[in-house]
Amino acid sequence: MADPVLPSTARTLLARTARVQRDGRAPSLVAGVVRGGGLAWSAGRGDVAESHTDVQYRLGSISKTVTALVVMRLRDEGALHLDDLLDEHVPGTPLGDRTVGQLLSHLAGAGSESPGGWWERVPGGTLDELPLSDDDVVLGAARRFHYSNLGFGLLGELVARHRGAPWADVVRAEVLLPLGMTRTTPRPSGAAAQGHAVHPWADVVLPEPEHDAGVMAAAGQLWATLADLGRFAAFLLGDTAEVVSPATLEEMTVPAGVDASAAGWSAYGLGLQVVRADGVTLVGHGGSMPGFLAGVFVDRAEQTGAVVLANTTSGLDPLVPGLLADLRSAEPRVVEAWTPAAPPVPLETLGVWFWGPAPHVLRAQGDRLLHLGPLPGRPGRASRFAARGDGTWVGLDGYYAGETLRIAPDHLDLATFVFTRTPYDPAAPVPGGVDERGWQGPR
C-alpha cells in the first residue's frame, strides 16, 4: 500500500515538476514518487489525458533492464553462465567471443548502435537481416564501458532462442505480468501519448515516428504507464514478486563498468544504471527514443523511488534526482528501531584482530552477517561476510567480495592473509613466520 506524501510535500513536488515541464517545453509530462510499494504522489503537466497515471509513453532503454531480468532468470535456472561466450547461445555474430556478462554491463566493446538505418526511427527486422560485420566490434573486451544498444539487441535474441518464443512474449510472461504491469506493451495500446520533437527556436512540434524495432526491440521497444513504471520502481526497491530473488537483484546493482563520460559518478551493473547524486546512490535506468524521455530510479537506503515520462525527444533537465531530494528533505525516512540480536558466532570471536600490526574489528551485524574493517578513523579494507553452509564465510562487498573467510580460535584466514589476536602473534600460523627476537626497542 503506497504511503501518500503530505500536502506540503505534494506542493513542493508539483512545483518542481511544473517548472521542468515548462522550461523543458515538453508537450506533456507525468511524474511520481514511490514509497510503501506504490505511487505516493503523481502529477501530469501539459497535454495529458486523465487519468494521467494510465497514459502510455515509450520507455526507451528502461526496456534493457526488463531484458536483463530474463537473462538473469536464465542464469539462475542454470541455462547459462554470465561468463559464457555469446557464440554458445547466439552463434555466428562478430561478437561471439564476448561474454553474456560483458554484454549486460556494456563492457563487450560492441558498437553503440546497430548497423543500417537509424534503428530508433526505422522499422527493424530479424537478426539474420541485420548486416553485422567486424566493424560492429569497436573496442576490446572488458577494456572500458561503452554503452551498446546493439549488445542488448543480441541479448534479446538470446532470450528468444532460449525460450523458443518472441522476446516481447517472454518479457510479458516472465516479468511484466508477474509484477502486475498489464499496461506495459511492445507497441502503444489504449491511451498513449504521441511522440514529438520540439523545435529548438520556436514553440512548435513535429510528430516522431513509431514502429517495431525488430531484433533491436529489447534495447528500447516497451511502452508503459506511470502506474506501471511506479510498480517497476517498487520492484527495484525489493518487492520482486519472485521474478528474481533479492540476491539476484542485489547482484544486478553492483557496478561493473564506470561511465567516465558522465558529469558525476556513474556506473553500470547488470542491466541497471548506478549513479551517485548529492551523496546518494540511485539505482534504475533512464530511457530515450525519438519523441520520448523516461526515467525510473530508486534510493534503496531511503526506500523511495521516482518515475518520469515525457513525450519530447530532448531538452528536459533531470527531474528524478530532484524529486527524490525533495522527498528526502521534506519527509526523511524514519528507520526501524534497533533491537538486540544473537550474534552468528560466539561473542569471544568478535572484537579486535590484527592484520600484521594494523588493528581491525570483527563485529556482528544482526544475527546473520559479520563485518571486518579497520578501527574507526584508521585506513584499511572493510567487507561484510555471510555464512556458507560449510562453516566458512564469503565476502559480500568491498575488497574481499567473493573471498573466503575461515575462523579459527587463534586467527582469521582471509585470502592468504592471517589476522591474529595480537600483532604478529608467534603462536598463530603467520605466513613467513615471526622473527624469534620479537618486538624490539631502540638499540
Automatic annotation (TrEMBL):
Domain DUF7586 positions: 343-421
Domain called Beta-lactamase-related: residue spans: 21-315
Gene3D superfamilies xrefs: DD-peptidase/beta-lactamase superfamily (3.40.710.10)
Annotated Pfam families: Beta-lactamase, DUF7586
SUPFAM superfamilies: beta-lactamase/transpeptidase-like
PANTHER family per record: D-ALANYL-D-ALANINE CARBOXYPEPTIDASE, D-ALANYL-D-ALANINE-CARBOXYPEPTIDASE/ENDOPEPTIDASE AMPH
Protein name per the record: CubicO group peptidase (Beta-lactamase class C family)
Species: Modestobacter roseus
